[in-house]
Design goal:
By secondary structure, the chain is mainly α. It has four domains: about 50 residues; about 90 residues, Type II secretion system (T2SS), domain F (Receptor-associated Protein); about 130 residues, no CATH class; about 90 residues, Receptor-associated Protein (Up-down Bundle). About 75% of the residues lie in helices and about 5% in strands. It has 16 helices and three strands. It has a three-stranded antiparallel beta sheet. Helix 5 packs antiparallel against helix 6 and helix 14 packs antiparallel against helix 15.
């Protein structure tokens, strides 16, 4: 017989800790379940003295796809009767992302020592705050499986949206790279050879050609300056995007630019509706839920609007009113929210709203991609046309001189 330290939850949702004597861990777990408890963790008492903190969690940051797979597998394990500690061990062994694998192993050790699952995940700093809040709510209510199911769905939706955005950006990025390569080749290779030919013929170059030749000479002789300026601009843009002013400018542009503004509003609406419905379904209060939703918003103006909504809700104002006053969301959002408040089914209507706007995001992504393609082609044609015109100008000048003879 051995002593096992356990963490369980009773039918009322109260967490209890203690020790139990049993032949092995499985029998200790079975005995606790027979007593009507929800088992969070069971570990041999001697194991609690181990101080293990894995390191080396370097690598790529976990994506929404990684978290969706983790939540879905975690839910399945708990439904099959696997304890939290054993589930953490199995998840850590089969997770592909190295940083997430190390974090799961550390969570396992913390839970074995008697810490709650939510506090252990929060201490790692790698798990999204929304997931931590949902796990904490699931532990408190004894519905951890339901919370994980909802989070799996949430992450799957986020992963799909991110995939759509990446798909939409592939074509513009490739075209821009090709355009830059074409311009560089023309300025470094084509233009110098072309100019040498006219120099041998003694033809005076037009102003437009002289300007392109000056650009070509500068790029050939001072290429390091061009690279330094380019790198500096990238650094300044990244640095500016982290300041309050830079975030405000980017946020304003994201809401006002043609096509892009429509996409930003619809994607923000879909995330707002899906996240808020998930939190309310887990039993989290409306004030805390709105605060968490605000932190998930990418656009700083939308985030500020949600923070203001939270302040209004704290004063007892129905959520639909500050949503309407913010002017950030389509009328359908606050109208559906108002109906949900009147019928007592805010969660259900927000879920339907999320489904609708997630489809709208997909169509908005396609519209954004369709609008960007001709714009990029026009810009590329203008650049190449300018260079070709500079090459053709000396020939036209020479032909005009020959006609005047």
């Amino acid at each position: 017989m051995a002593n096992f330290a356990y963490t369980v939850m009773d039918k009322g949702g109260n967490e209890k800790k203690g020790t139990i004597e049993a032949e092995n861990q499985d029998k200790a777990t079975s005995q606790l379940k027979n007593e009507g408890y929800i088992v969070i963790s069971v570990a041999e008492a001697s194991a609690l003295n181990k101080e293990i903190k894995l390191s080396g969690g370097a690598g790529k940051k976990p994506t929404a796809r990684d978290f969706s797979i983790m939540c879905r597998q975690f839910e399945s394990m708990l439904a099959a009767g696997v304890t939290v500690i054993d589930a953490m061990n199995m998840l850590g062994s089969q997770t592909e992302n190295n940083r997430l694998r190390v974090a799961l192993k550390n969570v396992q050790v913390s839970v074995e020592k008697g810490d709650t699952l939510a506090s252990s995940m929060e201490a790692e700093g790698i798990f999204p705050p929304l997931l931590v809040k949902m796990v904490r709510a699931g532990e408190a209510s004894g519905s951890l499986e339901i919370s994980l199911n909802r989070m799996a769905t949430q992450f799957e939706k986020d992963s799909k949206t991110q995939a759509l955005i990446k798909k939409a950006m592939v074509y513009p990025i490739v075209v821009v790279i090709v355009a830059i390569a074409v311009v560089v080749v023309m300025l470094i290779v084509v233009i110098p050879n072309y100019v040498n030919m006219f120099d041998d013929m003694g033809v005076e170059l037009p102003k437009i050609t002289q300007m392109v030749v000056a650009m070509s000479n500068f790029l050939i002789e001072k290429w390091y300056i061009v690279l330094a300026v380019g790198a500096g601009l990238v650094f300044l843009i990244k640095a500016a995007s982290k300041t309050d002013t830079g975030q405000y400018i980017l946020g304003k542009a994201g809401l006002t630019l043609p096509v892009l503004g429509d996409f930003t509003i619809k994607s923000s609406t879909a995330r707002f509706a899906r996240t808020l419905s998930t939190l309310l379904a887990a039993g989290i209060g409306l004030v805390d839920a709105v605060d968490i939703v605000a932190d998930t918003m990418d656009n700083v103006l939308v985030r500020q609007a949600m923070k203001q909504c939270r302040e209004e809700v704290m004063l007892g104002t129905p959520l639909s009113q500050p949503l309407e006053q913010s002017g950030m969301f389509p009328p359908m959002v606050y109208q559906m929210t108002r109906i949900g408040e009147e019928s007592g089914d805010v969660e259900g209507l927000l879920t339907k709203l999320a489904d609708y706007y997630e489809e709208e995001v997909e169509m908005a992504t396609q519209s954004l991609m369709a609008a960007m393609e001709p714009m990029i082609i026009i810009v590329l044609a203008g650049i190449v046309g300018f260079l070709v015109g500079a090459c053709m100008a000396p020939m036209l000048t020479m032909y005009q001189a020959m006609d005047s003879l």
